[in-house]
Amino acid sequence: MSPSTEPTRPSVPAATSHESTTTRTSSTSPASPAAADQATIGKSLVVKGEVTGSESLYIDGKVEGAINLPGNRVTVGRNGQVSANISAREVVVLGKVRGNINASDRVDIRSEGSLTGDVIAQRISIEDGAFFKGGIDIRKPGQGKEGVPAATISNAEQKAVAVQA
User: Which of 27, 114, 144, 148 would bridge 131 by S-S if both were Cys, CB 3.0 to 4.6 A apart?
Assistant: First the structure.
C-alpha cells in the first residue's frame, strides 16, 4: 500500500502548485510591462564595449563604452559605475556616470548620484546632494541640434552650421 501512496502524494500536488504559480506570474507580467522588459547588469559584472537593445536596463555593475537604448530607460543603480555616453528615452542616475547623456525625455540625478558630462534632454531633475558637472541643453520635442525646429533646417543649412561651429 505505501508504494502506491508515495508516487501520487508528491507528484500531484507539486504539479498543481507549480502550474498555479506559473499562471500567476504570467498574469502579473502584462500589468507591469516595464519590470518584465528590463535587463540587469549585476554588481560583479563588467561590460566593455557597446550596449544596444530594445528593453530597459538597470546597471549595478561597471560599463565602459557606449549605451544606446532609444525609447527605453537606463537606470544606473547605487553600485553602478558607468564610463560611457548614454542615449535613451529616460536616464536615472543613482550611482556614478562619466559621459554625455542624450535623453529624448528626461534625466533624473538622484541625491546619491554623480554625473560628469553634458546632458541633452527635454526635462532634467537634480536632487539635493547630487553631484553634477557639465552642460545642460533643454530641447523641446522636434528640435534639431542648434535648438531650431528640425523640420526647418535643410541639409545644406545643416552643413553650413556644422562648418561655422
Answer: 114
